[in-house]
Specification:
heterotetramer, A: alpha+beta, 5 strands, about 15% strand, B: mainly alpha, two-stranded parallel sheet, 11 helices, about 45% helix, disordered N terminus
Chain lengths: ~220, ~220, ~220, ~220
């Protein structure tokens, strides 16, 4: 979906707050990320489905929460009444904690998974080769994708072929998509934004990983 | 799994177990009050555990990995090794996953490509669509990396963004911006500063800050 | 500025509320528009400068108000103290109205201006002719412009040359820009969004008015 | 200035003057309570008048033009004339400003191009960047025209948008979407429905609704 999350190149957000460090380093935010990932509540299509005004008004943690609650409630994994009951209980009593339920026999496997680097398949079939010029297709996919709008229609050069992957699921909980080569494509900034020397930006290179079906001959 | 692992295992082992469980949430003994958002996050965990969907010790272990097994100290070790061992550096550039594994650094969100800063090239990493980041080498990202201005502007006006971080590059340095749109995670091998010839690998690791491995800082000699 | 206002093609806003009619037809909203335009508080660069999260969270009237207050306070035309004082007075006393100060001699001229269609200059010099193929330049202007992002880099055909105009002021209160031909450029939807037949959208035409300096040979 | 002008002048004349001034704002006699936003708008006017920057009767006159001198009744008259007078229709398509002036329709935001719906072509008007609209012919735009879904989607998925308005077109009708990015304002000349041969010009004007002149409706026989 070409939603608000696809913000590469958008102006108007102001300066970067370079001192903003802490998020995710407060324990509960990392814990929320763990909970959201383990439960399957979090997904990128789910985050991207947050309405644009809410997306921009929400912190990172709020988006993970909103996405997870929506998915887990919608799928009937948890119930509204449960959330409300626990919110009241946990807000009213500062000593209250969530219930504890362990399964220690599963932990080593989880830790092994977390500390194993996922391997990327080699691209045994690839339409384009390193050095080829390619154009990013014009498109407007309804589901989740990984093709930022700012490269649409632009011509770049294949820098590397890191491997082959399935396209990501288009919908929360959906199946993965077509298995195909992924290319790192290098663009000259002038082919994306024009000549910005007058704004203090000499030409630079922009490299984006793009699935084969996002690309066509130039 | 890590050659510096002992320190860390020691750090977090004592936090585990029932008495210390849920240590990430605030209780009256904590310095901060619970925010409404924190209560919402706790309620989500409570509902999921109550339903048996997730186990508390799984959440503990996952959180622990995010906070302690991953982090920029690993990235700094990798950089320091690359600066002092040319063969390792070559392996790192050719096959980062294998080279990182030599130092016991591995994990999810860790399918790494290392890109090298030189006199002529400066690399900058961003994820415009999301906030993808090389967890094993750098841990969880800072707020600014996830912020809208950074995601929106790094791909279109990198020098303007870098100047907000205090980084001014010569006009003839070519910037390469990497937008992490697939499962590959980009990691910057910063340039070794002059005047550090006498430093040991551990001393070098100590001067490498996280931002230099994202591309929003240069490493300075101590 | 390529800001949040440039939303052509963005997904995620949901359906159109086709029953939403009333705005601007309640008297005070039209009166606000009149006030904002007469005072010079309203400008498109000013509207576009509203931060993205606020832009999406605001109604049309709120944006006109925010833009006008910001500009008129910033230029010292009115004062913060005045606004606060009047807000309190007008909220406290439902019979209270703004003060009245007329200048009836100026009204006929104003009405004549409002009821006169602005003429557009003929384009005596134009680089492109009707039927020419043109490409929209890649650009990223910092100031206000009228070149939507969704046509950048796309090739279209000149449909008509309605005339010549100055480019609009880049900043609130700024000077108009270069005087040049304006072209109505027709694009095939496939050159903007790809083939959308599977989504129930057969190819269509998209026509956009673009200043000459936005265009280049294809 | 308008050949229907008398009715209107009469309508709004009695609203003018000190006793009836500011009639757009709500007072205890009004049905609605003042909203916080309305108070903000009133305070802006008050501050500007207090400073002498704008005059009350200028605001009155401008508001009156927006609400009464402009409006879809003018657009409907233009359409009805075009349906009944082929020469006028041709002049309207060739030089809309001059043809509208024949009917006394003119004004700011009124540099018009008329685009004609036929059996083969359906026109739809939008302004993606703002909310530009042909004021003299249609008045101020409805909320939906200014809404984000309409501005975002009309240029990319017009059939999907039209179906939300209840308009379903044959697959072989070519849609032309007009994005009002310059000072030109687009106005749709809808197709005359079958079964209206016996209607007078005034009767025809009465069946032409505003949406049909934007392209989000078709005109139906009465």
């Amino acid at each position: 979906m070409d939603g608000i999350h696809d913000m590469g190149g958008m102006a108007g957000f102001g300066p970067v707050d370079v001192s903003a460090e802490a998020s995710g380093h407060e324990g509960w935010e990392a814990r929320l990320q763990a909970t959201a990932l383990l439960s399957g509540g979090m997904s990128r299509p789910g985050i991207e489905a947050i309405p644009p005004a809410e997306y921009l008004a929400s912190s990172y943690a709020e988006k993970w929460l909103a996405c997870s609650e929506h998915r887990l409630l919608g799928d009937g994994v948890i119930e509204r009444e449960q959330l409300d009951r626990w919110r009241t209980a946990l807000a009213d009593d500062p000593n209250r904690l969530p219930p504890r339920d362990d399964a220690p026999e599963a932990v080593p496997g989880l830790v092994a998974m977390l500390t194993t680097t996922p391997s990327m398949a080699e691209a045994t079939e690839s339409r384009f080769a390193v050095g080829d010029r390619v154009r990013v297709r014009r498109m407007r996919p309804e589901g989740h994708h990984r093709c930022p709008r700012y490269v649409r229609g632009a011509v770049g050069v294949i820098d590397r072929i890191p491997g082959a992957e399935h396209q990501p699921p288009a919908e929360p909980g959906g199946d993965v998509g077509h298995f195909e080569a992924v290319y790192t494509v290098q663009f000259d900034s002038r082919d994306l934004w024009g000549d910005q020397r007058d704004e203090g930006e000499p030409p630079f290179d922009l490299l984006v990983d793009l699935w084969e079906s996002y690309l066509e001959d130039p | 799994m890590s050659d510096h692992g002992h320190d860390h295992d020691h750090d977090h082992d004592h936090d585990h177990g029932d008495e210390h469980g849920h240590r990430h949430y605030d209780t009256p003994g904590s310095r901060r009050a619970r925010s409404a958002l924190e209560v919402r996050a706790m309620a989500l965990e409570a509902a999921l555990v109550e339903k048996g969907v997730v186990k508390t010790d799984a959440i503990d272990a996952f959180t622990d990995a995010l906070e302690h097994r991953f982090g920029p100290h690993h990235g700094a070790r990798v950089v320091a090794r690359a600066w002092t061992d040319p063969d390792f550096k070559q392996r790192l550039l050719d096959d980062a996953n294998a080279a990182c594994a030599e130092l016991g650094v591995a994990g999810v969100e860790g399918n790494i490509r290392v890109v090298e800063n030189t006199d002529d090239v400066h690399n900058l990493v961003v994820c415009t669509l999301c906030s993808c980041y090389p967890w094993p080498l750098l841990g969880l990202p800072p707020i600014w990396y996830k912020s809208f201005p950074y995601r929106a502007r790094a791909v279109a006006e990198p020098r303007s963004v870098l100047s907000e971080f205090g980084v001014e590059l010569d006009d003839d340095v070519r910037i390469k911006v990497w937008d992490s749109s697939s499962e590959v995670r980009y990691f910057v091998l910063p340039a070794r500063p002059d005047g550090t010839d006498e430093l040991s690998e551990d001393e070098l690791a100590a001067i490498i800050d996280r931002n230099s491995m994202i591309g929003t800082a240069l490493v300075a000699a101590p």
